[in-house]
UniProtKB/TrEMBL annotation, chains A, B, C, D:
Residues 90-328 form the DAHP synthetase I/KDSA domain. The keyword Transferase applies. One of its GO terms (molecular function) is transferase activity. It comes from the Bacteria. Residues 1-70 form the DAHP synthase ferredoxin-like domain. Gene3D superfamilies: Aldolase class I (3.20.20.70), Phospho-2-dehydro-3-deoxyheptonate aldolase, domain 1 (3.30.70.1140). Pfam families: DAHP_snth_FXD (PF18152), DAHP_synth_1 (PF00793). This is 3-deoxy-7-phosphoheptulonate synthase. Keywords: Transferase. One of its GO terms (biological process) is aromatic amino acid family biosynthetic process.
């Protein structure tokens, strides 16, 4: 950490700051410039530094403190230079492949979900998505089928041979959801739900961690650090748009987060173009942009008959539109020397259920 | 809901939209303007309307859909025109009084917390605050004392006679925290944690609901609706700053949210100037602004020796600075015909613990 | 326009609103729903509607007014369904080609600029960029060479055969800059400088209109409307990042603006990935994303020796990095059935100067 | 400036950075921490520092550069510790008084404007406002009366004895507007129009500089620096709301900017609650908040019959509502030991026109 003294800070103030830093157990490196004196803080752990910095922010002689180190460690590329590959049922996130997670926003019913799952697989999806628990801003809208939804997901996995990804909303439900799902998803509204993140650090199952729409990249990576610090390093990051003043789209896709995050961390980063766009006519453009920017995968909403969807209908692609998007992103991935994997006989659900005859 | 057809939408498209609306069980009111045709949707409940609107957003003949009704009902002033007064231990939020909740960010230890509690009361606070569970963006910083912290809070309540307000972070902990606290606080990062909000709807204890820093006013009120819909109408709203591009302050206090929310809802709204400012030298100015804008109370961080605080030291007021702030806001409240209540012998904790001799 | 009456508005209030609308010369279409009454306003021009709407916003019986028509007309795709192609010196923006404008941020000197211009052309740029007048946030940083810079740009055009694009900052300078430049650029800070936009409506020369970093898409298109309303329809829109809470990049590239704008307007839209990224290591990823999203071109900062640049050095690509970026975007454009044009003998500056032997 | 080297930067990289810094004419102070090496840059002027920093941002061994000094000098409180008082026609901004500028958004006609001016004065305004040139986002809305509007303003000044404040939109018009106006206003959309700011640096007349709605406090103060650097130090800053994701209000009033700016600079800072609120029912609350936060004045839209206003009708106060607001803010100012001045016989326009009998 660096402490910039106020221009005109007195010698007493400088000495007082130095003394506090030393008393807190850190080394000091003093640098007197023409305009201001700078106190470099050497050593110490992250927590003590944070507390020291905050306490000195209010000191009358201090102009400001500037953190030099990042607030996270295990997720940083400096700590772990090689790309982490998260493998789930034969699908690899982070190793140069660009798998696509697809399916309806919510699991609305058995028949419909199975139809959607087969349509998604046929168009090239290698992981299925679908919410059994839905965080909805109004208490009066559809909140998900709960465990019944999880059972439908499990059946879809058995019959399609594809692993499934679904949201978990509170720590208590983690064991239940983990019994059914291959990837546990943390939604944007829970991006800083620390009890939930801690619970996910205790399990041995991949986690897809969405960025909160009001969350900085640094906070997002710090949230991932909670999971890794708990012992679970199978984390897939997911950019899904942030809140800005622009209202034409539902959120503003921060496509630059893809190269930024790939530089800062070794974890794979995928993009959800559906929630960012909010309208289906812009989803494919955002999906292409994400892959072109280097995303390690996509999560896309697909519905057999989008107009009949009970949740987020406006942003779901039809199977036809999804297929065309898949063709485009496969070609773009190839430009970058990457590959969009297709579902094969080798695709196997991770959570161990026997695979039913495909195309049943 | 209103459906605006595209300029140039065909008669077939208009007929198709009308048919869908009717099939969904709504009435239709067609209005043909010079530039565009508008389909008014009549009747129906909120959930069906939401689903219908989303599904029609993708229709080729539709330019856009516009919701006319609000997504919340029980929290709206139209539904309940009179101000709701939330009373806790003799302190009233919402009835023209402007009580102040004060104390350290976190409960760091018994001695220190009791010292802080008495200092806060002496300066005029009528409710104590202090976190036993702290949502921190880094897993390596102080996370709170947990139940030990709750016990310290309970002791502080007994000895000062002031009710206490503390944060709860997950649904499972609600019963435990409710055993100790007079007001259960939902932090900004959990502002859309729906399982938690649902759990708080089940209890008979006031809830202080902070606005998420990426959350619109409409979403914030919808989050409150979850609690009221569950049966608990003792909700105090708390504005604490939103995320914007400005970095001089930690967050941008949306002071206009105070009059806006007071118009939209009957629930009391208080302001937390400490987290918005992020630096103690600006806290009093924001506190004064909040009271002048009509806030029904404040929540302020006060620490006996701010520089020694382990959490958010930079934004904590010293007892002296807090006292001066209290004098200023009392005078400003008076301008608006309101009153900042002071702690008295009549102040009694709500949760029933016997009150110890004050000043012990 | 639609006027939504308050729930509980009285018959007198409704009658009063209807009377005002009619008195202002509009037709009325009344629709009484279960929850609220809606007054549809029929006919009238944009200006009167705007004034009526604003005046009714304050009416005690009115909940809110909602505009149905867009604030712009000439730039809208409804008014002009076919893509507008802006041609400059043989380079076409908007007709399925993806030309790249490249060069240093500022014209720093003759030798350096010519070196940069040839390097940019060699790597595939078909238009040159370079600022003679620089809007800088500090008055103490380099402000551009002024007319001397324009002369260097003209010489570069003659010698490379490529048209040039440069910024104009005030209406008075428009004739001077138009004498030298093939495309006049409006910077983000002048995106709503209406006297400047009006002056650009009077000339017969293409304008590249950057989006302001605090400007919505609707305001951006309305700014373009000023130029078209003046008689100049050769407008190229340029997305260059908006202000958000994220600070990892200099601005947040709103890549979704590309498909949104292409749907709303017939004007070509290009992307400036350099200012959005702010750091050169992320420029190519954003350039690829922009082309993949459907951008009609790019504007990129290239410098022979980026580290020596006096302006925005951190975001300038070296010629080598630029060449690699060009290869990637050419391949991505091909995926979309589009083509990145290369400089050829046929490339001719638009403003009529004789072309010097290439490769001199 | 401080250069933070990458963790793991080689000795060659460190030596190369040091050499570049020295070659650019700066001194070097090297500090080797446990995690990273820091290069302190000593001496030099702002422009060279900015260029050096930007050029090193791209260096492979550099993690990031951090500016220690501010980009502005003349406006900083460090350079000029005492409050600057801007006096205009006997009205003082910045010396503990809280004058109020009031009047209609635009000058719509002579009769109406004079009526508004007398009403504003009667309610306590000490400066008149009114736009003769209006920056409107649509070219089809009322753009102001131009010079005719200026003449009306001059007449209003003569007859009321109050100085007038009006907007100037381009450098060419500065002399004309300065002939009529006592305070020249720079609107939010021109907050970074540097040719205009430079032109205003050349005149001897107070300037009211609005903050751009996408502009940081640092950029706003840097814009003021342009005016002071030109030789004109009579600058009044005006906060008027910034762009955020919240849409309930037209903009989000950054009330914290008041104490922040008063700490950073010696210039007076006033607040425009009308544009921030966008709806008249919230204007008084924001005005009270601004004065409570320490604002040195207000600029408020008042219209004799708000519903008939052709520009921004929704946010204009009636004279009655304005009078009530004046009473409230006077009482709040008194709490802070400040005074809202009232118009008196001594109020005299600054620009020298003879004062007509008041109440004529």
């Amino acid at each position: 950490m660096i402490i910039v003294m106020r221009k005109g800070a007195t010698e007493e103030e400088i000495a007082d700051v130095v003394e506090r830093v030393e008393r807190a157990g850190f080394g000091v490196h003093l640098s007197r410039g023409e305009e201001s004196t700078i106190v470099g803080v050497i050593g110490g752990d992250r927590a003590s530094l944070e507390a020291l910095g905050s306490s000195l922010e209010g000191h009358p002689g201090v102009a400001r403190t500037m953190r030099v180190t990042k607030p996270y460690k295990l997720v940083s590329r400096e700590f772990h230079p090689e790309d982490t590959v998260v493998e789930v049922g034969g699908v690899r996130f982070g190793g140069g492949e660009v798998p696509v997670i697809a399916g309806p926003c919510a699991v609305e019913g058995r028949e419909l979900y199975l139809e959607a799952a087969f349509a998604a697989r046929e168009a090239g999806a290698t992981v299925l998505r679908g919410g059994a628990y839905k965080p909805r801003s109004s208490p009066y809208t559809f909140q998900g089928l709960g465990e019944e939804g999880l059972e439908i997901l499990a059946e879809a996995r058995e019959r399609t041979g594809l692993p499934v990804c679904t949201e978990v909303m509170d720590p208590e439900s983690v064991p239940l959801v983990a019994r059914y799902a291959d990837i546990l998803q943390v939604g944007a509204r829970n991006a800083q739900n620390y009890p939930l993140l801690r619970a996910l650090g205790q399990i041995d199952r991949p986690v897809l961690l969405k960025r909160g729409f009001g969350t900085t990249i640094e906070e997002w990576l710090s949230a991932a650090e909670y999971i890794l610090a708990g012992g679970n390093s199978q984390v897939i990051l997911c950019e899904r748009g942030i809140r800005t003043f622009e209202t034409a789209t539902r959120f503003t896709l921060d496509v630059a987060a893809v190269p930024v995050v790939r530089q800062l961390t070794h974890l794979p980063v995928v993009v959800d173009p559906s929630h960012a766009a909010g309208k289906r006519q812009w989803v494919a453009a955002l999906a292409r942009a994400a892959v072109a920017a280097g995303a390690d995968g996509l999560e896309v909403e697909v519905h057999p008959r989008p107009d009949e969807s009970v949740s987020d209908a406006a942003q779901a692609l039809s199977p036809e539109a999804f297929r065309q998007m898949m063709d485009e992103i496969a070609a773009i991935a190839a430009v970058l020397g990457r590959r969009v994997p297709l579902p094969t006989a080798h695709t196997r659900p991770a959570a161990g259920a026997p695979v039913a005859p495909v195309g049943d």
